[in-house]
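Follow-up to my post from last week.
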Amino acid sequence: MPLPQKGNTMPDTSAYYHLAYTIALGIYAAYGLSLYLRRKRVRAK
Amino acid sequence: MKISWLPTVAGAAVLGTVIRAAFFTPLEAKQGAAQKIFYIHVPSAWVAFLAFFLVAVASGVYLWIHDPRLDRFAESSAEVGVVFTTVVLITGPLWAKPIWGTYWAWWDVRLVSTLFLWFIYVSYIVLRGAVESPELRARYSAVLGILGALLIPFIHLSVYLFATMHPMPIVGKPSAPSLPAEMLVTLLLSLVSFTLLYLAFVRSRYRYAVERDAAAAKREHDA
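User reply:
Got it. Predicted complex:
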C-alpha cells in the first residue's frame, strides 16, 4: 500500500459543485411548482 | 390527486442522473469535483438550444398557417428555454471560478453571446405581455422567436471562430467523443433526462396556455 503523500495536487472544488447542483435543481423544482400553481389558479377562475 | 406520468418519469430520470453523477462517476484528475457541474451545465445548454430551435420552427410555421396551437407551443418552449438558459448562465460561472480563476470574462464571445440569447428570449416574454391583440402578439413574437434562434449556430461555432476560455465541444463534434466511458454514459443519461424534463415542462406550460385562453374566451363571452 503506498504511503500517504504530501501536497495533494487536486484542489477541493466540491463547494462549487454542491452550490451549482443546489441552485440548478432548485430552479427546476421552483419552475415545476410555479407551473402547477399557475394551472391550479387558472382552473379555479 | 392525479399523478401525471411524464413529470414523474422526468423527475425520476433527473434524480437518477444526479445520483449517478455524484456517486458512480469518477472525479476528473485535474478539476476535481467541480468538473461534475458538466453533467448539469451541458444538458441544460442542449435543452435551451433545442427549446429555442423549436420556438423558431413553430413560429415559422405559425407565420405560414396561423394556427394558434403553434403560437402556444412557441410561447411555452421559449419560457422553458429561458429557465434552462438561466441554469446554464449560473452553473457556467460556478464551474469557471475554480478552473479559470474568474466567474466571467466579458471578452469571451461564447459567454456573452449566451447571455444575449437569454436577453432576447426574456424580451420575447416581455413582448408577449405588452401586446394585447392575440394576432399581433403571435405575429410579433414569432418574428422575434425566429431571429433569436439565429444566434444558436453562432454560439456553437464561437469557440472555433474566436479566442475563448470556453472548452471546445468534446461530444458534439465530427470526431469521436473525447471522454472516458463512465463519464460519457453519465453525460448521455443527463442529456436524455433533461430532454424528458423539457418535454414535461413544455407539456404542462402548453396546457396552462390552453386553459388560460379558454378562461379568457369564457370571460369575454360572459361579458
